[in-house]
Specification:
The protein is α+β, with helices and mostly antiparallel strands. The protein has 5 helices and 4 strands; from the N terminus they run βββαααβαα. β1 and β2 form a beta hairpin. It is elongated.
Length: 131
């Protein structure tokens, strides 16, 4: 998992805007603070569909960007955004958990028309990146 630094800004009562100093042209908008993780993850997924892999800069390096300095002067904040690069390869794993938890997972997955594996992957992604 990688962390890209986003500049989060808001003009008045508008939506929150996000830009990524390391990723030119990568931006997102979120109607609320709680919606930022999902919007940021979607923006990163879309950006990396067409762009080469980019190693995230350190926080110290990002703080020196002119855009970051200007955003901070006008109320912008920096937010580390966790990102798991898309990888369509699947891998079989063996896990151990409480039987009652496994039953609850299976019931919920079935109700959502998901497999156990897709449910667990979705839950893990949500826990790791909040989206």
């Amino acid at each position: 998992m990688r962390y890209y630094i986003a500049i989060v800004h808001q003009d008045g009562d508008s939506a929150f805007g996000l830009t990524f100093p390391d990723l030119p042209g990568c931006f997102a908008a979120a109607d609320s603070w709680d919606a930022i993780p999902a919007a940021a993850t979607e923006a990163l997924d879309l950006w990396f569909e067409d762009q080469p892999d980019v190693t995230p800069s350190s926080l110290d390096t990002v703080k020196k960007h002119l855009a970051v300095i200007n955003a901070a002067a006008t109320g912008g904040v920096l937010l580390p955004v966790p990102y798991i690069p898309a990888d369509t390869a699947v891998e079989r794993v063996n896990i151990t958990m409480e039987r009652s938890l496994l039953r609850a997972i299976d019931e919920t997955a079935k109700a959502r028309k998901m497999t156990r594996s897709s449910f667990l992957a979705s839950a893990a992604r949500h826990e790791l990146i909040g989206a």
